[in-house]
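To: structure desk
From: M.T.
Subject: fold request, one chain
Message: Could you run this one when you get a chance? Sequence is below, nothing fancy, just the single chain.
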Amino acid sequence: MIRLTLPKLKKKVRSFWGLNPPDLVVSLVPNFNKVMHEALRDELPGVPYVTVLTDMADYPPHFWMEPRQGQYIICGTAFAASQAATLGYDQRSIFTTSGMILRPDFYRRQSVNKTVQLEEMGLDPNVLTGLILFGGHGSSEMLQIAKALPDRQLIFMAGHNTALAKKMATQSASAKHHVMGFVKDIHLVMHVCDYFVGKPGPGSLSEAVHMGLPVITFRNGSTMPQERYNTVWLEGNQLGKVIESVSELPGALEALLSELPLYHGHVQQMNNQAVFEVVDALGAIKAG
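Reply: Done. Structure tokens follow.
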């Protein structure tokens, strides 16, 4: 649809650039980078155009990157940078950061008392605690996870899904399961946990790893194509386990916990400073 309506879209975007002339354009969306760049080139040819990937890899064709487009690419992984080079971008046009962009909150020193916070949740601070997170609206898979791990102390993030939260709260478990709704400061919840279980989204994986949590995530036929590489990245850096279904979760978690110090060591070696590096890259681009 974008390709078929390209002339009409480009006319609208070109008009927008003409009425709102920028000094620099930064795109954080896929799919539309061809039409936005071409409209900018035609209307304001001297203004630089930058695409910041918020995925760990491109999913060609015509997703994040367009071949040999006269613009800059900021990548959060070496693999994405290699994809840009393959598409004809030279080294001056490619900037590689140390990860995905995280909110600055994740870099602030934590003053949370882990023991106190866990006790306020009705949890035992002396027991390993897992965080179960599937985005802002949760997932029905969380019900299956609760049944699969009845003897593990877990925090379930149901997000905005109040119906799911109610179902989760009625499930019985031999260990303590605590269910939470949507919270803005997820980094504070991660701070009191020891490991993470969830979908392979680039944001949640990066947040968990940055907060020192080894990860168990899923890769199967329903995994979004642009998120499949995230599981390769996770395994390649030995940051956790990748499984196909919830039925494999008990065994995977037992294996992870048996080597938890090893995985904690690998996670702590990651040093994601992307939110600062992107600003530096934009400054360098603007300076020419």
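Reply (cont.): The longest strand covers residues 153-159. Let me know if you need anything else for the meeting.
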